[in-house]
Every structure is written in structure tokens, then in C-alpha cells.
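Recap from last week: sequence in, structure out.
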Amino acid sequence: MNQLLRLAGLLAATSVAASCASMQARTAPVTVPLAVPAPPPRVVMAPPEDAVAQAEAPQPAQPQPAEPATAETQARGRAESPTSPAPATPPSSAPAPPRAGAPAPGSNLTLRPPAGASNGSAAEVRAIVDRASRGLETVSRSRLSPEAQTQYDTARRFIVQAQAAVKVGNLVFARYLAEKAETLAKGLQ
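Predicted C-alpha cells:
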């Protein structure tokens, strides 16, 4: 009887071990080479003539040291610092030419909708800001959790920034901020 039990246990163990084994594919995967497109041609724009003229302008004369170097001052300088730093080259006074595609300094960088696109008027943006403000007025900040208070404060800042963007005529950015404020206000209610 013991032998029969041992034989049954051995058969069960071998069947379990055989069922855990897995088959592996013996074929190599087929790889298809990819066709890499040629790089696009480069467009090199010449800098404006004003920038070239400024870059070619003669540099101002090097500033003269306050005290002429004598053997005594050189010896004193060596005694004070055993390693003297390399003389620094003065920075170039000519401004670097502007990068191609970069806006000119002092230009107004406001986002404006393209002609024919309807991203909303100032009145629509003010309506969204008013809805967000009314939504925040219904919420008591003192009863909110610290995380919710942070969201409340963020919504208030979005409202202030949206109002400022409307004043300068940046309606795309104002609408974006107003919608974010409105979403936060709805989440807090």
C-alpha cells in the first residue's frame, strides 16, 4: 500500500512539473529594415545688416590699470597670493545678433486669436470670471482642508491674472485662466 501511495505521489509530481514547463519558439523573428527619410534641407537666414554693422564696429580700447605695474607691486602681489588667476578678458560690448525667428526685444508678446477665429470676446471672458468668482463666494475657505484651501487660493490668483490679461487685451490667455479658475471653483463646491 505504501508503494502504491508513493507511486501515485510520484506520478502527481511529474504531471505537475510537466504542466509548468513551457514551449519556446525555435524560429528567428523576421526583421524588416526601416527606410529612413533624408533630413530636410536647412534654411539659413542672413542676419540683418544692422546687426552685421554693429558686430564689425571697432571695439573700445582696453581699460588701463589704475597703478602701473612695477617690480615692487609685482613682488607684493606674488607674496599675497601664490597662484595668480589668469587675466580676464573683458566682455564684448557689441550686442549679439538676434536669433532667426526670435521676437525683437521690447516687442509685445500677447496671445491674440487669428483673424476669423472666435476665441471669445472680452465680455465672454468676463462672464467666465464672474461665474468663477460667484462659485468661490459660495465656499467658506475656513471650512476647507489645507489642500482645498490651496486650490481656493489658486483659483483666486487665476481670477486676478485673467482680469489683468483682459485689461491688456490678451484674451486667449485670459480665457484660459478664467476657465481654470471656474473649474477649480466648481470642484470646491
